[in-house]
Structures are given as structure tokens and as C-alpha cells.
Amino acid sequence: MENFREDLRKMLSLSLAHVSFKWEPGFEEFLKERKKRRRVLDPETIAYYKSLFKRHLEGKTLSEELVNYVANHENKWLRNVFRQYIQYLYYLRRIPPETYGWIMEVVPSRSYKLDVRPYPIDLEDVAKTLKYLEENHELYYLIYRLMLEGGLRLSHALLLIETFSPKELVEIPGVGLETTRLVCFSDKGFCRYYVGIRGSQKPCEWAYFSTKR
Questions:
Q1: Are strands 169-172 and 182-185 parallel, antiparallel or unpaired?
Q2: Quick one: which of 106, 120, 136, 173 has the fewest CB in 10 Å?
């Protein structure tokens, strides 16, 4: 593929001509359930992918020009949407392996730049914020405490509060342990709560928080 890219491109030109792009329920299901690597489960990400697809790809015919357009587009997220739709087409056997391999070689995935920036946090400000929330907004105070003490994402903290069912009996998959969702260890000063979010992205099985108010 690396040594004969131009020859391969010419050989594949005919196989691209009759493949059109259309956002369909099957593609959404593929993103959520069928992908081999990272599945796309966040509704906001799905909505963003759909808006990009509708704006740049809907109704287009697969061609060398379209491949080059996506590969050089300023919005690198379009590459992700395009590559995943190509995976979907390959999964449905609408394109041959040679076409799939060439396109995945030519259109790189979106690059991720790791940029760690130190951000100083004044502990006095944190204490003032928590005190203010405790006195003026109990719900926000609870959310901040869950995130601070258990390292929860905001979405996980909100889900825990919305579906809170402390006495529900659950079986932990793969362990064979049966327990109530909420178990408190008063002598140790903390509780654990089984959230049960599993998956390839953003899992959250347990939430931990102190018994102190």
C-alpha cells in the first residue's frame, strides 16, 4: 500500500463510483454497538457527528476528490466521521478490502495533541465555594462533593443523583457478588455506591464518598 499507492488508486477508481453517503439508523447503531474499538455512546457526540455528516457528506458519491476533500479539510473531526462511515460501508460489504485499506491509509484519523497546562488551585477558594454552596444550594453542593471525593465526572454524578436507589439489590457482573447499591462503613468514614456504568469509554462502576457532611 505504501509502495504502490498511485497504482492502487487507479485500480480502485471504478469501485468508488457507485457508493453514496447517507446518514441512516444503521450507521448510528454501528457507532454505538458494532465498532471494534471505541464505541460512540455520548448523544452529544452522535449529534455533532450527524451535523458534520449532513453538512459535508450527505448525498455525496465516494470518489478520489471526496477522499482528498476530507483528508485536507480544516475540521479534523470530519476525518473521524468519514473514516467511521467507511468502516460501516466495509462492515456492510459495500466496498472491497482494497478500497477500505487505501482510504484508511490516505485519510488519517484526527490527531490528539496532549497539552498539559498547570492550573493553580487555591484551597481557600475551594473551601469558600463549598461553604457557600452548602448554605445556599444543596443540590450543587452535593454534586461538587461527589465529584471532589469520588473523582466522578459531572455526567456520572448527575446520573447517580437522578437514579439513586440505595436499597436496590444488585449482582456485580464477573464477580458473583450480590450487594445493595449503597454500603456505608461508618467506622471508616465512607460509603460506596454501585453505579454500574461499563463500556469502552468513561466507565464508572463505583462511587465513593465520605459519611461526613
A1: unpaired
A2: 120
Nearest by Cα to 202 from 45, 66, 62, 48: 45
Cβ proximity of 49 and 135 under 8 Å: no
Using an 8 Å Cβ cutoff, are 191 and 183 in contact? yes
> CB neighbours of 102 closer than 8 A, spacing ≥ 6?
1, 5, 8, 9, 12
* Cα distance between residue 56 and residue 43, in whole Å: 20
Tell me which H or E stretch contains 180: strand 177-180
CA nearest to 91, candidates 149, 145, 29, 42: 29
Of 189, 190, 194, 197, nearest in space to 207 by CA: 194
117-131 pLDDT, tens per residue?
677 888 899 899 999
Residue whose entry in the numeric block shows the C-alpha cell 454501585: 194
179-192: per-residue pLDDT in tens? 999 999 988 999 99
Nearest-angstrom CA–CA distance, 78 and 83: 8
